[in-house]
């Protein structure tokens, strides 16, 4: 019964920055971690970043490490993804997701709760 709603997507120029937000509600105590995934046309869904509740541990894809930052505030009510140094390869639909057991960016099927996504376009 976890509900996720993303926002903050849009169009930016290469080298620019963008901040995505995810409103988290419901039975968040059933989640072991929350994260961001993305999917571009012709590509499989890939994990971008994730963290355990409390923010003690963070995971990043190699392609975004050093450029993206995941954070969580307001007692898990909000999840953020701050993206910097954006390039055309970052163009995708970005999804907020929650997982009940474990935390692994390589197993998106284990994330059982998903938002509808928000489009990010970099040109």
In short:
Helix content is 0%, strand content 50%. The chain has strands at 3-7, 10-12, 18-25, 33-39, 46-51, 58-60, 68-73, 78-83, 92-99, 111-114, 118-122.
Describe what you observe in this structure:
This protein has strands at residues 3-7, 10-12, 18-25, 33-39, 46-51, 58-60, 68-73, 78-83, 92-99, 111-114, 118-122. With 123 residues, the protein is mainly beta. A hairpin with a 6-residue loop joins strand 4 and strand 5 (46-51). Helix content is 0%, strand content 50%.
What descriptors fit this protein?
11 strands, mainly beta, globular, seven-stranded mixed beta sheet, 0% helix, 123 residues, four-stranded antiparallel beta sheet
